Sequence to fold (157 residues):
Amino acid sequence: MANLEPSYSLIGEIGALDGHPRTATAICLTVCELVSLSRKQLFDRIEKHPPLARAMIELLCARLRWVSGELGDHAFLSIEARLAKRLFFLARVIADGSGWIPISQSELGEFLGATRESVNKTLNNWRNRSIIAMKRGGLRITNAGALRHLADSQDED
Fold:
């Protein structure tokens, strides 16, 4: 799993714009209503509505910035900092009303490019320090200040 997109997101824009196969597979985590445009339909709309081209460029730039940030984080931050940052993101995007984030340790590892074992070790450490609470298939941030400190820390190795 590379990323989660909120409701009303545009996905598949790279393949639609360049005509090559898609760069990722999308999986819906909830019931969704999808609208699909062919490459021709997209370009017809861009020709009829030139501001759409600017919006597409802005979207691509935002995605490129996100990818660059992820690559930088992976290269320069510890697993603890990357995991803390990812938990804040997931809390905003998929947490339920009580703050529980429904995600497995394996899925977190996939997000981070880390093993489930290293994620488990880090999460257990944080649970023992009352930074998070864990239950099967999910977790909740219980000390956002401490987790924010970890997210903002640089790898000192």
Notes: Residues 10 and 59 are 9 Å apart (CA to CA). The longest helix spans residues 51-76. The chain has two domains: 13-73, 78-152.
